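Many groups now describe folds with learned vocabularies. In that spirit, our science desk offers one protein's residues alongside their backbone shape tokens.
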Amino acid sequence: AKPGMSVMWIPAHTTVAPGELAARASGTREPTGAKMIALSSGERALDWVYVEDVIDAYLAAATRSGIEGRTLDLGWGTAVRIRDVVNRVTRLVDPSITPEYGALPDRPDVRTRVADADATAAALGWRPTTSLDRGLAHTVEWYRQSLENVERNGA
């Protein structure tokens, strides 16, 4: 940092955002025509936060004095399993998709972290406002509109 410049560390936990929903899963079709998605166990739990809430937090941090040198977490302070998020997305996108949990190995030695939401609220006067379900619905709708634009415009 330059002299006179303040530095703070404000990591966002797992962000739900249009453009981020592209799964790292391989989609296949069973001989029966069922759509399968190969995934790990999905047991890992993460603190999910919607991207617009993260932007609001960064704006709050940029205008707040007295937080220089602090580390503040952005999130709800609760963890939700990846499996539960995948099931919610599946219901929104195509209920005929069958997540194949356990088809891929879990990442080794990954610990669950959740935001200290109370400390962040005290420091910034900010808390997330977009629920996980609402953020997922916004994200799925963004994808639908983007795909329609591609199909309509060819790019």
Summary: The beta strands are 14-16, 26-29, 35-38, 45-46, 48-50, 80-81, 97-100. The first helix runs from residue 51 to 63. DSSP finds four helices and seven strands in the chain. The mean pLDDT is 83.
